[in-house]
């Protein structure tokens, strides 16, 4: 799942959203990358949630069906739900606007073509025909007697983090994952290296698994579930596999697939806070490591092949 996210400085308005309806569909404009050959194609493509295109081989339909010119692989994308209005916040917070179920492709860059709508923060005035292509927008709310604006617009395509409404136990079926490498913390791995019997004999670890690159001896993979259960109701830090992204919040629950539910969550990119997200669900296959927030932080180590 991918999400088109937005952070913007809204003054006097809220609920910024694409003008997207059956009578006036919005075409989301992206550059696309094939996940098979990793080729990023230069031409912009359009995705509309009201269009249906057939997949070859009678495999169903999708909003967007595309064939890579380099490797000839057919890929698809489907918009999961109507766009979520962007709420005014101070300071501005990054929010998911629309989510895509992508198969064989990824969207890498977004262009804000088309018209947008917004609502007056105090007056509930409807503003239509908003053009964001210039990166900012200004108008005047006559009912409120004040200028309204949209500034500092930043769009980004990210891996989707599904929001959850309560502390329910979450299970995602049919998800194959090696539980031994889903969420073992850097602290736990280092602890094993510090055992007297293992000092001087630790093998170097592949950063994406617990398989070892032998030097003198090999590690036996450690089941991370007891460590994770011990962190429930504690504040933790979860590091994702990409983008130097971390999430800090209270661990609510961990299901049998080791998907992680956090509350009071704050996002950090390159160790800088980008805003609060509230409650989130992080899928296990997105996790590089997890540790207690009070544990000693270590810098990521460069691993030689």
Structural class: mainly beta
* Rg computed from alpha carbons, rounded to a whole number of angstroms: 23 Å
Molecular shape: flat
Q: DSSP strand (E) fraction?
A: 35-45%
Strand order of the largest sheet: 7-8-9-1-14-13
- The tally of beta strands, per DSSP, is 21
Distance between the termini: 30 Å
Description of the molecule:
With 305 residues, this protein is mainly beta. It has two helices and 21 strands. The chain has a six-stranded antiparallel β-sheet with strand order 7-8-9-1-14-13, with no helix packed on it. Strands 20-19-18-17-21 form a five-stranded antiparallel β-sheet, with no helix packed on it. The radius of gyration is 23 Å and the shape is flat. The two termini are 30 Å apart.
Q: Keywords for this structure?
A:
six-stranded antiparallel sheet, disordered C terminus
Topology:
Blueprint: E1 2-11, E2 13-18, E3 28-34, E4 45-47, E5 53-54, E6 61-62, E7 64-67, E8 74-79, E9 95-103, E10 105-111, E11 116-120, E12 126-130, E13 137-141, E14 146-159, H1 186-193, E15 204-205, E16 212-213, H2 225-230, E17 235-240, E18 245-254, E19 260-269, E20 272-282, E21 287-292
Antiparallel strand pairs: 1-9, 1-14, 2-11, 3-4, 3-10, 5-6, 7-8, 8-9, 11-12, 13-14, 15-16, 17-18, 17-21, 18-19, 19-20
In short:
This protein has helices spanning 186-193, 225-230; strands at 2-11, 13-18, 28-34, 45-47, 53-54, 61-62, 64-67, 74-79, 95-103, 105-111, 116-120, 126-130, 137-141, 146-159, 204-205, 212-213, 235-240, 245-254, 260-269, 272-282, 287-292. It is mainly beta and 305 residues long.
């Amino acid at each position: 799942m991918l999400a088109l996210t937005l952070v913007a400085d809204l003054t006097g308005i809220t609920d910024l959203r694409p003008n997207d309806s059956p009578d006036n569909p919005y075409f989301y404009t992206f550059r696309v990358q094939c996940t098979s050959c990793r080729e990023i194609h230069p031409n912009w493509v359009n995705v509309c949630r009201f269009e249906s295109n057939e997949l070859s081989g009678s495999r169903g339909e999708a909003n967007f069906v595309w064939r890579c010119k380099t490797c000839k692989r057919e890929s698809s994308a489907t918009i999961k739900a109507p766009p979520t209005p962007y709420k005014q916040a101070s300071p501005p917070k990054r929010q998911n606007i629309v989510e895509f179920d992508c198969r064989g492709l990824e969207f890498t860059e977004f262009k804000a073509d088309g018209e947008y709508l917004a609502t007056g923060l105090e007056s509930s005035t409807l503003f239509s025909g908003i053009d964001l292509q210039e990166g900012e927008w200004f108008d005047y709310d006559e009912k409120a007697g004040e200028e309204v604006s949209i500034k500092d617009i930043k769009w980004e395509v990210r891996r989707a983090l599904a929001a959850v409404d309560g502390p329910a136990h979450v299970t995602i079926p049919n998800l194959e994952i090696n539980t031994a490498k889903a969420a073992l913390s850097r602290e736990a791995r280092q602890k094993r290296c510090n055992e007297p019997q293992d000092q001087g004999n630790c093998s170097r670890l592949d950063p994406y698994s617990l398989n070892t690159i032998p030097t003198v001896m090999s590690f036996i993979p450690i089941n991370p579930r007891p460590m994770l259960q011990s962190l429930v109701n504690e504040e933790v830090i979860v590091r994702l596999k990409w983008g130097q992204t971390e999430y800090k919040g209270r661990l609510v629950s961990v299901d049998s697939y080791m998907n992680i539910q956090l509350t009071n969550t704050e996002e950090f990119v390159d160790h800088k806070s980008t805003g609060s997200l509230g409650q989130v669900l992080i899928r296990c296959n997105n996790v590089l490591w997890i540790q207690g927030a009070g544990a000693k932080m270590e810098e990521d180590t460069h691993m030689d092949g």
